[in-house]
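Late entry, evening session. Most of the bench is empty. Finally got around to the prediction I had been postponing all week. Sequence below, unchanged from the version circulated by S.P.
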Amino acid sequence: MTTAATRPGDRRVSPVFLGILAVSAVTGWATWTGFAAEPGLAVFLFVTSAWIVSLCLHEYAHARTALHGGDISVGAKGYLTLNPMKYTHALLSIVLPVVFVIMGGIGLPGGAVFIERARIRGRWRHSLISAAGPLTNVAFAVICTAPFWLGALDGVPPAFRFALAFLALLQVTAAILNFLPVPGLDGYGVIEPWLSHSVRRQVEPFAPFGLLFVFALLWVPSVNGVFFDMIDAVLGFLCIEELDTYCGFDLFRFWRGADEYCAV
């Protein structure tokens, strides 16, 4: 297995990422302590910055796995620095994810790392590179839900509890959506190496539209209902109640005014 030599600067953690991490820490503290005059704003900044941190780690996982799989170009492209600007695609990274989080509480990492697949040898390595990103979301979901299923919520302020529940919902939706075997999503990338060449050629033209197709389906009420029933079932298994995620989403959209059920 190739572990390419890269320049020190190619692996140096970006100040942009450290700044976003600092925002997440400070607003998390403000949410916990009630320091913020407007708890909804603190929740919004905490969840958004933590979401961007998870986006960076999602894409870093793809890049790091590709590096060890043989693609020595990822360092020069800046993918190992955790800089969100290196993963940015204007539509997929900013517009659609923000719209869907605000309108429907759906999280989908929208970054992109361009792997030189010709450098990778072995179908298992190709599959692992694709799986590495959503597995990062699974790890984030486990971390966010741990206080709930460990029964460690005594003394946790309601606003922080709600924010953590909503962040967990975003991670769970991101993991499930990314693992769908739809062209353009990581789930398809996992199975693609195992498909015949003819099948891959037939599917390839649809890859740029796979994500938009999933988004369009989620606007169908019946599909949306089934999807969120599944999400609620997963979160319920992890001991997160619907009220927690509902109030987290409510506080996140602070500009709409807080629901009386979610007063903190």
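Two things to note before I forget:
DSSP finds eleven helices and no strands in the chain.
The radius of gyration is 19 Å.
Will write this up properly tomorrow.
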